[in-house]
Predict the structure of GNAT family N-acetyltransferase.
Amino acid sequence: MIRAMTQADFSAFWPSFKAVIQAQQSYAFNPDMSEQQAYQLWCELPLKSFVFEHNQQVLGTYYIKPNAMGPSKHICNCGYMVSQAARGKGIARKLCEHSQDLALELGFKAMQFNSVVATNTVAIALWHKLGFATIGTIPKAYLHPERGFVDCLIMHKQLSD
């Protein structure tokens, strides 16, 4: 169900991706970016990108990349998206668990989410259940379309010593 993402997979998921970035609820991406710009951001710049596929439908995706370079390259960063129709079915959990296993295989020692929008309470609750700690708050870091400026959280999980 989880496998490497192809450009065709991204194109199939593009309507969901576009809906997420246009809603401006969770990602600080340009809501007007093109499919090619989004593909580059999600699939070409990261180390790897994956899809969750069920019944030949791409329901979710994630990328993994180093969070920083040089002496901090042992910490990775991931981003996850699940289509609106597939939310609440455990797909984000499966993607996050897969990404943690892959991170260890790739030699990463920890995973960090740099900017989790504080109003994204479903994601925050899931990350906490999966062992992530909130290690910081960035005040008024995200301009939410309904709530104005809201905080973002920095979340971290040590994967190995």
